[in-house]
Structures are given as C-alpha cells and as structure tokens.
Amino acid sequence: MSIQDGALTPLSHLVTLIITTSPTPSAPSTDLVASILASFKRHCPALLSCQVIVVFDTYDRIGDVNRLKKGQVTAEGAKAVELYKSNVKDLIVREWYPERDHPSPALCPRQGQAEYGSPHLAHNYVTLSILQTKDKQVTFIEPAGRIGFGLAVRSALREAETPYVWIQQHDWPLARDIPLESLVDVMQASEGDAAAPVKYICLPAVRMLSYATSSHVLPFPALRALTAKFKRDFPTTRNSSHGGGEDGEDSGTVVPLTPLFFWHDKPHIAARDHYRARIFPTRLAIARGDFIEDHVGQRARTQMKEGHWAKWACWLYYPGDGREVCLQHRNGRKWRGVDSDLQTKAMFAEMSSKQRTSTSLHPAS
Question: How many CB atoms neighbour CB 333 within 10 A?
C-alpha cells in the first residue's frame, strides 16, 4: 500500500511492470525471464501483483550466423524465437494466473503502431500485435519487425495506465531486496519539490558502486555540489499503524538516494508521464533500433552539468552508502541458459582438477 491524500492506494494501482525481451541464444528456453521472475519473488514480491507488459522485440533478417545486435539470426534461431515467445507467454500467464486460482484467461487481440522518424515518410512505422487479458493484468506486444529497446519501452508506456513504471530488461535479475513501496512513496512525496523531484530511480549494478564519490561525479564541480546538497536518506510516509509493506519492508523505512547524472536503461522505476515527456517528446526522439541510454543518456548528462539536473530528476538507489549491488547481469546476447551455464562451469572445474592433479604428480623441480 501507498498513502496519498490520506487514503491507502494499492501498489498494484500505482506501478506497471514492463519487461523487454529480444532474440537470445538461450531461446527457446525461458531461463532468462524465469530468472527475472524468481528474483522478484525473492527480492521484490510486490511486483508480481502489478500489471505486466511484455514486449517481444524481434529480428530484421535471417543470415548464416547470429548477429543479434545487428538484428540477424540464423534460420534455426528464427524458429527458436517464435517458440521462445510462446514459452514466455505461457510462463507469464501461469505466474499471473495460477491454475489453482484462475482458469487460463482469454487474450484479446488488437493492433498498434510504433512510428519513428519523419512523419512525411508513409512507411516509417512497425506494426504491433497486442494481446491483452480483459482485466489488463497481462499485455503482450509483438512488433512485426525489430524496433529496439527505445521504441519497445515507448510502446509499453502507451499501454501502461499507472503513474509509475518499472522498466526491466530480460538479463538483469535482482540481487538484493528492493523496497518498492518505499521508493514509490518517496517519488509521490517529491511531486511538489521543484528543486529535487524524484522522477527516476535506477538500481545499482557493480560498476555503480560508490557512485557519489566516483569519477562520474568528483571531477565536475556542478555535479559534486548537487551530490553534496541532495544526497540523503528520504523518510517515507508510512507509519506503524499500516504495518509492513507488500515488499517486506518494516514501517519507518528510509530510502537512501543520491543524484544520478545519466539516464540508464538497466532496471529502474520512473514516473510514466515524465518518461514520455523527457525521452519521447516526438516521434523523432528515438530512432528505430536505438537504446535510450546510447541516444539520450549523454545529452541528459551534458544538460545536468549545465545546471539542468532537476529537469531530468534522476536518482540512484544507494543502500549501504553505495556499497551494495542490487543487480546481476547476464548478457542476453551471449548467455545460453542455466543448463549451458552449468555445463561450462563443470567443464572448467574438471579442467582445473586435472591441472591440479598433473601438478601434484609432476611437481616443478
């Protein structure tokens, strides 16, 4: 629950979970997405009560070898992608509609468009096939051609009806408990704060440890000053009369945040309308195939250095004063699934064992 205007609002009415996925060597296995869901269950179960939108990006062409970043898959990979989509849909439906509680829901089809580039070119769009349950708890978006992460997020934002969204790439499982309700409380409470609004909160990965004292901040006087002024523990609006939150946090939680001087694609929580206004003001803002951080991230950082940080309102969740990681990374373009991962580890373990045995039998003279 979250408190707004004196009334309790369920978190499921405030946040939509958006998962983006694309062709991966582990297809048709659902290991990548399954590991994401498993990490939610362990570290942020409240997300599983929220509406979910899954965007299945696809490939542009079939070739002799997989070049996933370029939108190319093999003929065998193309078949795996189609089976992967079906498998992920089944996985999501089972998670959001357990058979013991609900019959399998009907998915209502319709079409949409992901437009891009000049509006004067009639074919500057990709058709979207959209499937959605009647209660809107589950939505699947399938573009007819590759659109990239940026347009995948924009397509999902157009379907989301809640004021906040959690953006989740398919290869970044959680590694630490996330107080989602408290994060949303802080974002709501900051809405009237023109100097330090909280519109975007990124979760830290290993390269973001000690961010506030890193080379991303210290060499720049303006960024150092903003950090010194605004980095702090934010109190939440919850109190003991409401008990613990859906995400397992005790009442009286404070939320440690530090200003962030970049717009990252890795998992984050953001205000939906802020997202659309800052990242997607027009159809020209993000090209087909672009990542947001590649296209907008540096421009945002430059503006922040020039004194416009509040315009972007980006923050980094900062548990342990920046010493705790919240995310793991599995490279979705290379990772081949749990079984392949175990086989690789077993192979290296066997090689290491043989090397130790050889060394013990033939010690250096």
Answer: 13
The amino acid at residue 218 is: L
Which structure tokens are listed for 231?
Answer: 């980095």
Cis peptide before 28 (omega within 30 of 0): yes
CB 99, CB 90: distance < 8 Å? no
pLDDT tens, 44-66? Answer: 999 999 999 999 999 988 888 87
Taking Cα atoms as reference points, which of 180, 238, 236, 211 lies closest to residue 16?
180
Residue 209: both structure tokens together: 């440890």
Contact 86, 78 (CB under 8 A): no
Distance CA 220, CA 231 (A): 16
Kindly report the pTM of this predicted structure: 0.87
Cα(323)–Cα(326) distance, rounded to whole angstroms?
A: 10
Q: How many CB atoms lie within 10 A of CB 2?
A: 27
CA distances to 9, 185, 197, 272, 291 from 188, rounded to whole Å, are: 12, 5, 9, 12, 28
Nearest one of 211, 55, 38 to 132, comparing CA atoms: 55
Residues of the chain with pLDDT under 70: 1-7, 100-102, 238-252, 332-365
Bridge partner residues of 139 (DSSP): 53, 132
CB 47 within 8 A of CB 17: yes
The whole-angstrom separation of Cα 323 and Cα 329 is 17
